[in-house]
Amino acid sequence: MSARDRDWDGVRLHVVTGKGGTGKTTLAAALALALAAGGHKVLLVEVEGRQGIAQLFDQPPLPYGEHEVASAPGGGRVYALAVDAEAALLEYLEMFYGIRRAGQALTRFGAVDFATTIAPGVRDVLLTGKATEAVRRRAGDRRRGARDDPRAPHAYDAVVMDAPPTGRVAQFLNVNAEVAGLARMGPIRNHADKVMETMRSPRTVVHFVTLLEEMPAQETIDGITEIREVGLNVGAVMVNLVRERFFDDAALADALAGTLDTDALAHGLKAARVDRPDEAAHDLAAEITAHARRVRVETAIRERLASVERPRYELPMLGAGGTDRADLDTLAGLLREQGAA
């Protein structure tokens, strides 16, 4: 695929969200692998504390830090970071105030948990701030908060954030609104402004993972509206767990109309030496009709998702035994083929 075929040239932060149960974390990991192909270096960031990335890549729970978890075709590498709000706050205190030791004392008294509970916007600034800092960071500069050298290459070619579910993602990403009533000036407000500068730039897009089902699709459409309303850029719609279609339009139309030729089905089953072919033909006709109804619903949902006028990628259901590394590689390859990387 040539560079002009890719949908996200110039994008450096890919935020992935979706309703619970849609496979959001799986597709975030697959996207990271897709972006890393060809010798690139990608950071995959988790902000919900579930250690889902470690499980996908068969790794022990990730400590607070950036650790390589996978290689990609062409010499690419995927690193992972499980952001912890308490550790991020200690790093923040050291960065701006030089009081990491005092911050560690605060954690012993529970002050950090208290502060982020009464001011949840601060927690979101800390979590999103880690991802946006990685986007801006230049190679060779490990000093957090140091001035970037614009001549140096970026430390990562892309950053993928496994974000909170669709119902909360706009609030989570719109950190300026969250801290407006808490800090109108000073380092916290400046930090939030820098986060939002990256979030609202053309370098950042928010991808939505959904299924061909009513509730996830409607939540995706609503989420896209919310993201646009807060001034962020909508990326792709990733339709996950797509099931195969087994019959052509004519057969599906006959099934929906109740005009399937069960005699022909029974004749074919009898020729195949199936026991009780007439009974089996009746059951098979019922299965085909149920399949046709599902296809009709899924077709209508596809049309609704197309109304948002964003790139759409479809990823198949790969099996019921859980996702392994081979599955991730398959999904990454499909994302590349469809233009995601």
From TrEMBL:
Cite the Pfam families for this sequence. Answer: ArsA_ATPase
Ranges of residues in domain ArsA/GET3 Anion-transporting ATPase-like: 13-199
**Do you know which InterPro entries this protein is assigned to?**
ArsA/GET3_ATPase-like, ATPase_ArsA/GET3, P-loop_NTPase
Q: What Gene3D superfamilies has UniProt attached to this entry? A: P-loop containing nucleotide triphosphate hydrolases
PANTHER family reported in the protein's UniProt record: ARSENICAL PUMP-DRIVING ATPASE ARSENITE-TRANSLOCATING ATPASE, ATPASE RV3679-RELATED
The protein in question is named: ArsA-related P-loop ATPase
Source organism of this protein record: Nocardiopsis mangrovi
